[in-house]
Amino acid sequence: MAVYRDKRDGKWRYRKTIALPNGRTLRISGTPPISTKVAAEDAERKHIERALTSRNGPTKKEVPRFDTFAQEFLDKYVAVKNKPSEIGTKRSIFRHHLVPRFGTKKLDEIDAEAIAGYTSAALKNKKSPKTINNHLTVLRRTLAIAVKWGRLSCVPAIDWLKAPKPPFDFLDFGEATRLVDAAEGEWRTVILIALKTGMRQGELLALRWEDVDLVAGKLRIACSVSRGVVTTPKSGKPREMPLSDAAVRALKAHRHLRGALVFCDDAGKMLTKGACKWPLRRACRRAGLREVGWHMLRHTFASHLVMRNVPLKAVQELLGHATIEMTMRYAHLSPDARRDAVSVLDLPAPDRTQSPDPAANRLTTAPVSRVSS
User: Fold this and answer.
1) For residues 133 and 147, what is the distance between their CA atoms, to the nearest angstrom?
2) pLDDT tens digit sequence for 8-46
3) I need a surface site. Which of 50, 61, 72, 153 has the fewest CB within 10 A?
4) Alpha helix segments (H runs only) across 103-199
5) Does the global pTM surpass 0.70?
6) Domains, the chain, ranges and CATH?
7) How far apart (Å, rounded) are the C-alpha atoms in residues 65 and 106?
């Protein structure tokens, strides 16, 4: 059985070249629905049986062209499963990259060699490995859904590129203070709240006064806006955010009667991301800082928490990360974590020749006292 465990994601897969009754060879590969070695072996065996039961190899069905199926994939799958920002991104990848390359090919003509050719051409066009991997991710998902819907027999193997990790940057405590002080008018409050809550830009723009409790000092992040469409936060569920004293004071001073939105234009309408870009850039210039984007303010919030020794689990919940792995990028900023880990090496070595401390035994024999309620 040609099964293996993929080092990239730990999933079990199979890949094998078989000889067909008509003399041709067929390369099969796939990923079982359950990621175990037994499931991969079973999926491979069934795939081989399907290929060999036909006299001339696998039954040849009418396979659609890539451009035709891409539109069906966007309409039936992407539009249902993804948020507006993701839908727009995937439509752009299809329109500008995948369809021009594979559009006239039938799905079963997009094999490993064709995909390798796409990767090579993209590298020659100065596309970054991260961008190419993003395109290949969309392509693989498209072909996987084609298999699921019975339009394709298997998903071809894809060779992913090694992409360097994106640079990690944030503002230190002094830089954050200078940025807030340099901001103009109400933008000072917007920037301060971004730094004190770690809210995503879409969550800031969709924040409503009804979700802010200045008496209890907290707010509820229940909405986000992307491309003008208000939807749920990225995690898909709301979260509660406690507010610092500075954030409460800033929001109390910012209170207005222009509408339901906390941050809005003079007419009470929702701000756009384009309108938010220049006030932040001007604040950076006035503060003498490098140019930063709104998402770096979220990185700064998380970084400052970790540098203040806030547990990573708490940081994960405040950021609304789905997994702790997403939060672990900030772990190296904890000033005490590694120092505390190695400090135990300076403790006296335990004397294994002595009997355990009698006092420790008394903890198990002492009577339990009852506390009246």
Assistant:
1) 21
2) 888 888 888 888 776 677 888 888 888 888 888 888 888
3) 61
4) 112-124, 129-148, 173-182, 187-197
5) no
6) 3-53 (no CATH), 66-148 (1.10.150), 173-333 (1.10.443.10)
7) 4
